[in-house]
Amino acid sequence: MSEVESFFKSAFSVDNVIFGFDGGELKILLIQRGAAPFKGKWALPGDLVYPNEDLDTAAARVLEQLTGLRNVYLEQVKTFGAVDRHPLGRVITIAYYSLIKVTDYTVTAASFAQSAKWHSISQVGDLAFDHNEILESCLKRLKRKVRMTPVGFELLPPKFTLTALQHLYESILRPTKGLDKRNFRKKILSMNLLVELKESQAGVAHRPAKLYQFDREKYEEFVAEGFVFDI
Amino acid sequence: MSEVESFFKSAFSVDNVIFGFDGGELKILLIQRGAAPFKGKWALPGDLVYPNEDLDTAAARVLEQLTGLRNVYLEQVKTFGAVDRHPLGRVITIAYYSLIKVTDYTVTAASFAQSAKWHSISQVGDLAFDHNEILESCLKRLKRKVRMTPVGFELLPPKFTLTALQHLYESILRPTKGLDKRNFRKKILSMNLLVELKESQAGVAHRPAKLYQFDREKYEEFVAEGFVFDI
DNA sequence: TTTAAATGGTGTTAAAATAACAATAAGTCT
DNA sequence: AGACTTATTGTTATTTTAACACCATTTAAA
Predict the structure, then answer these.
(1) What string of DSSP letters covers chain B?
(2) How far is B89 from chain A (nearest CA, A)?
(3) What is the tens place of the pLDDT at every residue in A182-200?
(4) What is the pLDDT of residues A121-171, one digit of tens each?
(5) Do A54 and B81 touch (CB under 8 A)?
(6) Would you call A9 and B8 a contact, using CB atoms and an 8 Å cutoff?
């Protein structure tokens, strides 16, 4: 094999850390591998990138095949390319994470076939390949991102309570002692990015909380004026 | 060609945005391409990744071949993989940036052969491939990084003046109106990361400034205690 | 040797942001 | 009606930030 040919004895894949927020906890969607290598192990959903496919497109495809969802928040994080990371050859992988609303998730043929399951972030065991390392990187990126831009709302239903929003931040940032409720509300509300709805929570056995909506248009206006989201 | 084979008709490269700081300005080291495609155009130094080479190793190799430097600050930024980004085939590239002290740079055989030159960041023209886009990403990353960690010192000689440090930050962050001298010095010195040397600047036609050194050990101690660098 | 030219070095204060803290309100359930 | 559970709200001390101007020290030129 010539040297030039050997450069082309390689492939690249995308792997996707799909985050969701449910039951007050941050979760990720894992699949159980049905074939070697790592048969039976939990792994991040991923696939080889098609020859005529852009990287972001491949990541979005993997996500859609598994969840049925399109137009989801998706961000490239890092590329993992250790020589021995894949037992069957030189395969580097471009890692992405995506943020979905768990309520939108429906079990697709692909997710059924691959027995996809939500796992609490704190209860993820030993994953296939270098996927634990990939998860760490994505989690670290999400932690930074969620404080600098309003991506947190991607994980919540369109209408949410301030307490739910606070729990979301706590579950991602994991501060040693929870956020102060009064300070959190003051800060969030002072940004004027939330619309207070007339509706309230229903079906709870206590005082129902007001529901809010994130106003993306306003956010974009403010950004154009120099506003920087920061929590 | 089978479908599996076609996945392996692809290659990956690394490209490196090499930053330097000289004459009060942020610069990058570009090479002039000697062969098609984009013959004669300025480009980021890069190369295909060898089959048995890790990605970080490849990036460090490209840097060393061009500059003779090892053990340099190097960070992966983003992978660019648009289907048509390389005219000769499917080649995705993993972009890195590195921070070097311009005074350490010596012209190597490789840099001579490729006519490498420092370019002011504000005077970079139209580059080969998607390298302008890559540069933008790396610059953006550097801007963030330099405020969150003390990587700025990687661009300065071991002994430097506070004014040089301020100019470094100004040339990277490009604030609309320069940083306030008194506030900048107060902030930097209050971190207790700089050692004031007995030496002063020499050979200047005005009051010479005191020289300082960055104390990396102290920084690491402080980080272990929870300190977060922030400018 | 005096003076001009150039950059180095320093402190105060008002305003804003942050952090710490606890009592009442509004629902459901029994 | 009373118990239970979570929602909602404001004040204050402390810290951080931002704005601002003058004297000091050296070299070079007159």
Answers:
(1) --HHHHHTSEEEEEEEEEEEEETTEEEEEEEE--SSSSTT-EE--EEEPPTT--HHHHHHHHHHHHH---S-EEEEEEEE--TTSSTTSEEEEEEEEEE--GGG----HHHHHTT-EEEEGGG--PPSTTHHHHHHHHHHHHHHHHHHSGGGGGGS-SSB-HHHHHHHHHHHH--SS---HHHHHHHHHHTT-EEEEEEE--S-SSPPPEEEEE-HHHHHHHHHTT-----
(2) 10
(3) 999 999 999 999 999 999 9
(4) 999 999 999 999 999 999 999 999 999 999 999 999 999 999 999 999 999
(5) yes
(6) yes
